[in-house]
Amino acid sequence: DAQSQRSAEQQLQAAEASNPSAFLCACAHLLAGTAGASAARQLAGILLKNAVCRGKVGPLHRAAEQRWHEEVSEDTRISVRSSVCVALVDDDVAVASIAALATARIAAVDIPAGRWLQLPNQLQALASLGARTSGQK
After folding, report:
1. From CA 83, how far away is CA 34, in angstroms rounded?
2. Nearest-CA neighbor of 31 among 92, 73, 75, 74?
3. For the purposes of burial, counting CB atoms within 10 Å of the CB of 121, is it exposed (0-12), middle (13-18) or buried (19 or more)?
4. Distance separating alpha carbons of residues 32 and 29, to the nearest angstrom
5. How far is CA 107 from CA 6, 34, 44, 129, in A?
6. Which residues of the chain have pLDDT under 50?
7. Total-model pTM
8. Least CB-packed of 29, 105, 109, 136 within 10 Å?
9. How far is CA 60 from the centre of its chain?
10. pLDDT at position 137, please?
11. How far apart are CA 41 and CA 57, in angstroms?
12. Half-sphere exposure of 54 (CA within 13 A, CB side)
């Protein structure tokens, strides 16, 4: 029902606001893991994507970008990026698609700031791995 949904949304917002690093790690871990239901993994990816960068411009975008760069440790950012890359090659196409959106959002924030500059090489390696794997099936 609507009240349950509002309550859940408020709890998620509170978790994100109180500890952004833990929230991002939890979302990234669920997205990249294979134990969760597809819908839960997709939702985790969407929450991750939105936590890193909300929209293209405006105060919400700037606040999320600032939080990603200033409140989230480099170790956490590396872990999140790694998890997103793992999810890019997931057998579940819906999860991989959400991971692609999350990757794009993270890159949109990181690359202009001079971070995650190895992403193109990582994507090339993942694509090459995927091509070899699909050729073996």
Report:
1. 12
2. 92
3. exposed
4. 5
5. 30, 24, 18, 21
6. 137
7. 0.84
8. 136
9. 17
10. 47
11. 27
12. 11
Instruction: Determine the pLDDT at residue 70.
Output: 87
- Quick one: tokens of 102? 């999350």
DSSP states of the chain: -HHHHHHHHHHHHHHHHH-HHHHHHHHHHHHH-SSS-HHHHHHHHHHHHHHH--SSSSHHHHHHHHHHHHTS-HHHHHHHHHHHHHHHT-SSHHHHHHHHHHHHHHHHHHGGGT--TTHHHHHHHHHHHHHHHHHH-
- Tell me how far apart the alpha carbons of residues 50 and 52 are, in angstroms, rounded to a whole number: 5
Amino acid identity at 127: A
